[in-house]
Amino acid sequence: MPTQQLKNQLEDLQRILAETDQPLSAEERASLQQLADRIEARLLAREQETGTETDDTSLVDSVNLSIEHFYARHPTVAGTLQRVVQALSDMGI
Question: What domain range is 32 assigned to?
Answer without folding.
Answer: 2-90
